[in-house]
Write a structure and sequence with these properties.
four-stranded antiparallel beta sheet, Muramoyl-pentapeptide Carboxypeptidase, domain 2, Zn_M74/Hedgehog-like, alpha+beta, VanY-like_core_dom, M15 family metallopeptidase, 103 residues, 3 helices, DD-CPase-like
Length: 103
């Protein structure tokens, strides 16, 4: 991730931990090749929604996927209520795990 996004995530992670929430990141920065593979899986119908290589905010170092376990979990609810304090927003309505640094 970009250094400012990583620093903000570290602050958010510490606050979540203090509240008894574990933020486990499944994916953050992606290379062009990693994004190409994910996009191809999406096109094949075997993967989640993925941006075209070169257009993903994961490649720009500001997006991360957090294991939230669904919108009814304590992890998701904590993020929904607190992520904006650290500059993060949920930007893909169909993906509750996808959060982007948007200070």
């Amino acid at each position: 991730m970009r250094s400012d996004a990583a620093a903000a995530f570290n602050r958010m992670h510490a606050a979540a931990k203090a509240a008894g929430i574990n933020l486990h990141v499944n994916s953050a920065f992606r290379t062009m090749e990693e994004q190409r593979v994910l996009y191809q899986k999406y096109l094949n119908g075997t993967g989640n929604l993925a941006a075209k290589p070169g257009y993903s905010n994961h490649q720009g170092g500001i997006a991360l996927d957090i294991n939230v376990g669904g919108t009814g979990t304590s992890t998701y609810k904590w993020l929904a209520n607190n992520a904006s304090r650290f500059g993060f927003a949920r930007t893909v309505p169909s993906e509750p795990w996808h959060w982007e640094y948007r200070p």
